[in-house]
Fold Glutamate decarboxylase.
Amino acid sequence: MSNTRRPVDSAEADVVEVNPLFARPGESTELARFSIPDCESLPETAYQIVHDEVALDGNARLNLATFVGTWMDSHAEKLYADTFDKNLIDKDEYKATDAIEERCRIILADLWHAPEPRNTIGASTIGSSEACMLGGLALKRRWQHARRSVGKSSERPNLVMSSAVQVCWKKFCSYWDVEARIVSISEERKVLDGHDLRSYVDENTIGVVAVFGVTYTGMYEPVERIAAALDEIQASKGLDIPIHVDGATGAFVAPFIQPHITWDFRISRVASINVSSHKYGLVYPGLGWIVWRDQAALPEDLRFRVAYLGGETPTVGLSFTRPGAQVLLQYYLFLRLGRDGYQRVHQATQDVAQYLSREIAKMPQFELWSDGSDLPVLTWHLRKGRSYNWNQYHLSDRLRMKGWQVPTYPMPDDLTHLTVQRIVVRGGLSRDLAGALVADLHAEVGFLESLTAPIEALGERPGFHH
């Protein structure tokens, strides 16, 4: 099997040249770039090479494309450095870390109103993608067991989702031979809301994915309305179809600043929920969670136990060895912030998002698609009925010259004619920085509006980051 690799740029040299200022006497000043060098280097030299190469990376605080957090306080950094070496799967050696992982899972189950938080089952994962895979597998396996128990075929399973799902769900369907039944969003129906759901489900439907925080737009899909539609379908057709809530972003936001929204285990049809800790959970990259509402929601044959690490180790997950440090960081934040702290942090980001929405809505060139009232995320497109000598890709390029990374991308299937821009507000985007962004936005739009002829459409590419 061949690995998929980024093609090597023919202009990139085969060697890394070390400035003599940094090399020590007797050291080589040229090191192979695409093979392990023959000789060793001093740690100071190797550090300087890597440090200088990544100096070309962007400024994380000005990256308004990504949901992923890039800052933690000095105490978290010290805790991280103290626990780099912990292997989460080795529960016999790292019993305390294992206990903290379990504690975090129960805390999340309680946050999401599980009927009996300590009777839930779940696991930490490598981000939400792994968590979604596990949630989907549990839906498929439960459906298969139910079909086989009554002598029916367990072939041709399908999963219903909106066209705006994150790519991990399309991967799940491809990897595990599940038909993806896509409900296209539209300008009239911006999210999957349960409308006409009976046209998509049948006896082979393993579940419906409700995205609580759409990556494209930051909007919440109304889980309660989706569940009500499925209740009606069960009453008329006898199909009992569960819901998995992909709460990668919203499951760490709504409990703190939108407690009035019913989306979680308070809805009996919700079988499982996933979340990304490295997004609005505020942890460094690499951590997600999956929680099932009760033990019955995760089939026994998806749970494994191994006995070669010094004791019997239960494991749920697609990966095995992985770091435990991020789990400890998550628990640190639960203790450090509490409910009040998370509420203040997320309310501040939403306030900034809605300030930006109001300012952009005032500009005659733009029309908002989402305004930050769900996630602290806003999207907008060019106002229809006007002519332009420029497009939003040009505006992204102009803003990048000022250091801002504001992505431009087409909407999903059946809406690809609509190009939007998106700002994800995270903790690093203060009200003052947002004001500077608004000023730069006005300046760059003013420049583009002053053009007397169209800009050639060269080099346009989507800029989209989960």
Q: What stands out?
A: Residues 325-361 form the longest helix (37 residues). The longest strand covers residues 205-211. The chain has three domains: 15-57, 77-334, 338-449.
